[in-house]
Amino acid sequence: MKQNTEHMQSTVTLDIDEKAIFQVLENVTEGVARAFGSNCEVILHSLDDLRHSVVKIVNGHVTGRHIGSPMTDYGLKLLNEADSLVDDVVGVYNTKSDDGRLLKSVSILLRNSEGKIIGIMCINIDLSVPLLDFIKEFSTIADVSYEKAIEHFPSTLDDLVNETLEALRNDADIQAKLSHSEKNKAIVMELYRRGMFRVAGAVDLVAKKMGISRYTVYNYIREAKIKLTEQI
Q1: I need a surface site. Which of 101, 126, 178, 194 has the fewest CB within 10 A?
Q2: Is residue 208 part of a domain?
Q3: Is residue 52 part of a domain?
Q4: pTM here?
């Protein structure tokens, strides 16, 4: 999209809380781009200075932009129409790059705690790339840096506890010569390590499903805390 930088003026002076929002969204920008691959450009615009609104961009080769590039003409139009828009998520829509490639795009208006617009996040996917090439890159896992991820997708806390307990019981059963109480302790300590007890109500539910008291669960949690502290 063409940019008209004439008369672009700063419209927002970001305070410390709003700057913190952008710091968080920089990681979101990076994460979305990594999920979809190099043919997906993700841009974070700040309204602090419309002449240099791009504060974070990943895969900028899609449109040829970089950090410090200005707001686009379409972005300016969105800002002018923001009060009349039904949804802060604008799209999905098709647009064209300056060299004529078709892009599938979505723009997201970003607001502060008072509802004032402070930026725009844009996602542009290059549709000119051969579909097989896009699928090949999209489906390839280039880097697994956080364990081997096995994730369940429960719809309720009950489902979450049931699925996790079942998996841990299977693991505990493999361990030879563990008494029933030792297996329970091992399971609760592993649940703690995995962060299960950060969820409100998890202690009561785990105690009920394991057939032990809340007091016992809390004792095992205390032991787990001590053990993890000693390992640090």
Answers
A1: 194
A2: yes
A3: yes
A4: 0.71
